[in-house]
Prior knowledge:
Largest sheet: 7 strands, mixed
Distance between the termini: 40 Å
Structural class: mainly beta
Number of strands: 11
Mean pLDDT: 96
Radius of gyration: 14 Å
Amino acid sequence: QVQLVESGGGLVQPGGSLELSCAVSGPIFTPNTMGWYRQAPGEQRESVAAARSNGGTTYAEFAKGRFTISRDNSRATVYLQMTDLKPEDTAIYYCHFLDVKTMKNEWGQGTQVTVSS
C-alpha cells in the first residue's frame, strides 16, 4: 500500500517562504501524479499543484508565480516551494498520489501552514 508522509509545515510571516516535502513509499508504478492540495477552515479541499511522472506540471491560478512543485523520482519525494506567502494561504496542505492506471488516490495526513504576523 502506498503511504505518504508530509513535512515542512509551520508558521511563517506574510511575504515569507516555506517548503513542504512528501515522501512516498510502497508500490509505485508509472504513470502517476504527485501533488498538493489544501483545505482552509470552512472551505473545500482544492488543488494547489501537481507533477506528473512524465515531467509535466500544473498549478492553480493562485499558485502560479509563487509556488513551485518538483519531484525527485529517485527518492520518491515531491516538494512544494512556496514564496510570497499570504494570510489566505493558511490551510492544511495535503500530499496526493494518483496511480493513473488504476485511478487510485492516496493522501497524506496533512501539514498545517499558517501565514500570520
